[in-house]
Amino acid sequence: MPYAHITGWGMTVPRKILTNDDLSKMVETNDAWIREMTGIRERRIAAEGETSATLGADAAFKALSVAGVLPTEVDLIICSTSSPEHIFPATACLIQDAIGASNAGAFDLLAACSGFIYALNMAAQSIRTGSIKTALVIGSETLSRFTNYKDRNTCILFGDGSGAFVLQASEKPGGVMGSVMHSDGSGGDFLSLPAGGSRHPASEVTLHTGMHFIHMDGKEVFRFATRVMAQATLEAVEKSGWKAEELELIVPHQANRRIIEAAARGLKMPMEKFVVNLDRYGNTSTASIPIAVVEAVQTGRLKSGTKAVFVGFGAGLTWGALAVEWSGPIQPERAIRPEWYRPFARLRSFVRRLLRLLEGLFFGREL
Ligand code: COA
User: Fold this and answer.
1) With a 6 A CB cut-off, is 278 part of the ligand 1 pocket?
2) How many angstroms is it from 216 CA to the middle of ligand 1?
3) How far is the CA of 152 from the centre of ligand 1 (A)?
4) Fewest Cβ atoms closer than 10 Å to its Cβ: which of 39, 133, 214, 298?
5) Which SS3 state, helix, strand or coil, does residue 304 take?
6) pLDDT confidence of 340, banded at 50, 70, 90?
7) What is the Cα–Cα distance from 358 to 56, expressed in whole angstroms?
């Protein structure tokens, strides 16, 4: 049975920074309170024209470059997002087109802030069964588009960004070793974006009552998160056949520093074992774990052979964890760089659209 190795990684965040002081001009809040209660100092906000797909495609190209994998070699793209470009088509399909991954299947996965864990697990299991060889997993969010900047309960938390991993099959032991996924839909109301779906389609009422914004019961979410983080981490460790003492690094969902500290207490592990970068990006939902992983690699905290757990929780309610033995690229450097494919991907998309148009014009089409 092949192993599923993480062989490429990349992250992209918008340039625009929204600081706590900026927020204090928009709602009744202040830098000291936000830092004390959440640990967040600033977050990134997507500019006009930046979307979950554009950020995702950018992160994907970076991940492919690290892995030395061409877009045409990708078999499957899973985009985890709670802020898709549309209800459909899937954001994963827009990314597939943007990067020119012409041989890949593509779909979105929605498990909110736990989504990257779920998506990584799905991709890894597809590789483990031999069904595919190469997968691209993307976590991408522009939650600022669904955030009410008059609601101080939520607007202090969220930021935009994207992270991507390439997963490849290899006979060498390592990669994604153990995983757990959990859910409890009875807590769905604690964190939701109520309108825009089939229960509350867009209407004047949904618009005027702010139902297209994120709604949250912060205290309940906090209680839930502190309860599940340590437990899910230990489950993933057990499933991978490791002992808790062997665990070297934990990359938790970046929601709130106090939640991560509670997990550290629950696990009886020092905070030094946890990757925390929420001070600079806020809660980027499903993108937070891959962004934190990329920074952990860049700072040398995650190296070939490191035993790590990625653990997340979020709306649904959902939570889950993955035990990963970090690999790094598994194929030798190649002469063709994946990022050189960027202009070809654009050209390819343009030509396909043009051909479709010409075909319609010259030969007509029956619906
Ligand atoms: N700025 C300043 N003061 C604020 C504030 C803000 N943004 N929000 C609330 N307050 C004040 C309240 O008025 C209250 O004041 P009082 O004690 O004088 O009445 C006090 O702070 C506590 O308010 P409360 O709403 O009870 O805050 P809390 O302790 O629940 O903390 C969160 C709020 C959002 C920081 C916390 O609930 C949390 O982090 N929850 C988890 C959210 C999360 O991670 N969501 C994403 C999951 S993926």
Assistant:
1) no
2) 11
3) 8
4) 298
5) coil
6) confident
7) 30
Annotated catalytic residue within 79, 93, 113, 155: 113
Instruction: For ligand 1, atom 38, name the residue with the nearest CA.
Output: 218
Which pLDDT band, with edges at 50, 70 and 90, does 328 fall under?
confident
Do 296 and 274 contact (CB within 8 A), yes or no?
Answer: no
**Amino acid making up residue 39:** G
Contact 153, 106 (CB under 8 A): no
Q: Is 156 in the pocket of ligand 1 (CB under 6 A)?
A: yes
Which residue of the set 20, 121, 256, 283 is catalytic? 283
- Residue 37 Cβ < 6 Å to ligand 1: yes
Minimal-distance CA residue to ligand 1 atom 47: 314
CATH of the structural domain 3-338, one choice from 3.30.390.10, 3.40.50.300, 3.40.30.10, 3.40.47.10: 3.40.47.10
Sign, CA dihedral 338-344-350-352, equals negative
Alpha helices in the chain (DSSP H): 20-24, 31-38, 52-67, 91-99, 115-128, 204-208, 218-240, 257-267, 278-281, 288-298, 341-363
The pLDDT tens digits of the residues spanning 342-358 come to: 898 899 999 999 999 99
Q: What is the CA radius of gyration of the chain?
A: 20
At 367, is the pLDDT very low, low, confident or very high (cuts 50, 70, 90)?
very low
Q: Enter the tokens of residue 341.
A: 């494919």
Best probe residue, ligand 1, of 37, 141, 224 (max atoms within 8 Å of C-beta): 37
Say if residue 363's pLDDT is above 90.
no
Could you report how far apart the first and last alpha carbons of the chain are, in Å?
45
Confidence of residue 366 (pLDDT cuts 50, 70, 90): low
Q: What residue spans define the domains of the chain?
A: 3-338
Instruction: Please tell me the pTM assigned to this model.
Output: 0.95
DSSP classification of residue 157: T
Catalytic (active site) residue 200: no
